[in-house]
Amino acid sequence: MVIAGAGPAGAALALLLARRGVPLTLVEASPSSARQFRGEALMPSGLAALAAMGLLPLDASIAQRPLTGWAFWANGQQLFQVAEPMGSERPCTLVDQEALLDWLLEQVHRQSGVRVLRGRPIVAPLLSDELNGERVVGVELDDGTRVRGELVVACDGRASLLRRKAGMELKLQGEPLDVRWFRLSSAAADDPLARWLRGQFVTVLGGGDSFALYASVYGGVQLGWLQDPAQAVPATTADWRERWAQASPTPLATLLRACPLEAIQGPVRLPVQVGHLENWWQPGLLLLGDAAHPMSPLRAQGINMALRDALVAARHLLPALGKAGSADLDQALAAISAERQIEIRRIQASQAQELARAELLRRNGWLRQLLATSAGWSGPLLSQRWQASQTLLRQGCAATDLTIPDAAMMDGFAASA
Ligand SMILES: Cc1cc2nc3c(=O)[nH]c(=O)nc-3n(C[C@H](O)[C@H](O)[C@H](O)COP(=O)(O)OP(=O)(O)OC[C@H]3O[C@@H](n4cnc5c(N)ncnc54)[C@H](O)[C@@H]3O)c2cc1C
Prior knowledge:
single chain, alpha/beta, FAD/NAD(P)-binding domain
């Protein structure tokens, strides 16, 4: 089989299948896992997926740090703060995703029957005409090489080429958003900005602006600025820094203004259009991760859902792969699609509600002011309501089955491995 893309979905699926002896080719367009900006927050739902894969505790070489909590500020006043783990089994944890992906790929490499092609973009799916219709039977790479397989799993991200080539259209949700990412690095071992954050994920609302910041495991402070694409953006780094400062409480504003311009990297713009496929498969082709359901950036779901997709897919694929006919395989693809839709749609709906609440506050100066001036008594109420709204976004759907049955209980490759 062929797995397209070695992000969290593709790398995790490759490992789960390769461990059970499924021969596969993992094709990745990029020569390395390094990106200028990467996600790093793993929710308890993603950590549960890693635990189910037998990957926790994570290798000590992978930089990781539990978040200490969440804090919300509006018009210079703290509305509330909540400490991790908020009743979850594990706290939300920042993990160096680049190191995690490299480590996963190292494990994949160690399995027999696996080929990893890096720096090799896929340019098209290969199709065959069968008696009962068209079927994807492999992929073509940029140099014309053809890689065949009984199944192609497209884990090629939110702009998925395989999704487009297969004519599969996302059902879009809400209006497009822009997230602009910055990194504020400090040469000092004891960065005063990181010290002020105290390991928390801090959201700041003020003057019609909204941004979030946290001390990154990559070093420095990562700052994400959420806006609708029609909103004007500051022209220079100095203008950006002043905009953040004006929305911030005084101590944070002082620290931001003290941050040297040359220490501010970005912005890197990530246009976000949330959506999902109503059907994640076609004969011989399955889509997973962002390729099937580009997520909103709110409350960090993308990596977590990609890992959970991989687990559920592996559970269905292991008994079906390597069997004589394609009917079993197609049935497994349909089952994966039906099962994963449930969690993804619920999470996307919950993210949309979270965004609507944040936008209401961002746009309404009077409401922000009311909450800021009454924070003494309204803060605890807001905190309670916010925590109640986070269960799904933190834990995922309780009904999601993350188990991988014992090899002995399965047919196909799983039994022979
Ligand atoms: C700045 C930033 C911050 C984020 N923060 C978080 C966070 O804190 N927590 C969280 O859970 N999520 C976060 N996300 C989202 C998260 O990174 C994604 O949802 C997640 O990586 C999706 O995993 P994936 O495997 O489906 O796709 P991707 O990680 O996008 O991986 C797709 C892979 O496919 C490869 N590829 C693409 N096209 C081809 C092709 N034609 N041929 C071969 N290979 C191809 C790409 O190079 C890539 O490696 C963030 C995203 C960004 C950009």
